Amino acid sequence: MDYSIANILIALIALLHVYILVLEMFLWEKPAGLRAFRNTPEKAAMTRVLAANQGLYNGFLAAGLIWGLWLGEAGKAIELFFLICVAVAGIFGAATAAKKILYIQTVPAVIAIICLWLKL
Predict the structure, then answer these.
(1) What is the C-alpha to C-alpha distance for residues 20 and 42, in angstroms, rounded to an integer?
(2) Mean pLDDT (the chain, rounded)
(3) Rounded CA separation 5/112 (Å)
(4) pLDDT at res. 2
(5) How far apart are CA 15 and CA 22, in angstroms?
(6) Residue ranges of domains in the chain
(7) How is 14-27 classified by DSSP, letter by letter?
(8) Which long-range contacts (CB under 8 A, 24 or more apart) does 62-67 make?
(9) If you write DSSP's letter for every residue of 34-84 in order, what string do you get?
(10) Within a 13 Å sphere around the CA of 25, how many CA atoms are in the beta-carbon half?
(11) d(Cα 12, Cα 24) in Å, to the nearest integer?
């Protein structure tokens, strides 16, 4: 495994999206999920199916990043594609849900894209 800065960032971003998957698919109505998304139990109950769907998409992002890492040098285009997907999803989430998503999702993805491009 190549322990470049880009690969470390990509692995951390993948782990973040696995964590978001767990929160949205399995912990949405539990105290951790309620805290993370500042939900009430009533709102969480009404939106749990939508949250699970979002969680699944976050899982796809993580899977794509992990796939790219697994492929090594041959996976760089895949990593780039999924990092762009993460960045765009973060921009959309910041515009429609919460501004903090820009910093949690988009900024790390853009930094990883730059590191990947610079071969850091």
Answers:
(1) 20
(2) 96
(3) 8
(4) 80
(5) 11
(6) 5-118
(7) HHHHHHHHHHHHTS
(8) 62/14, 62/15, 62/17, 62/18, 62/21, 65/10, 65/11, 65/13, 65/14, 65/17, 66/11, 66/14
(9) HHHTT--HHHHHHHHHHHHHHHHHHHHHHHHHHHHHHHGGGGHHHHHHHHH
(10) 14
(11) 18
107, 119 Cβ separation under 8 angstroms: no
Residues comprising the chain, all counted: 120
Quote the CA–CA distance of 26 and 110 in Å, as a whole number: 28
pLDDT digits (tens, 9 = 90+) for 1-60: 688 999 999 999 999 999 999 999 999 999 999 999 999 999 999 999 999 999 999 999
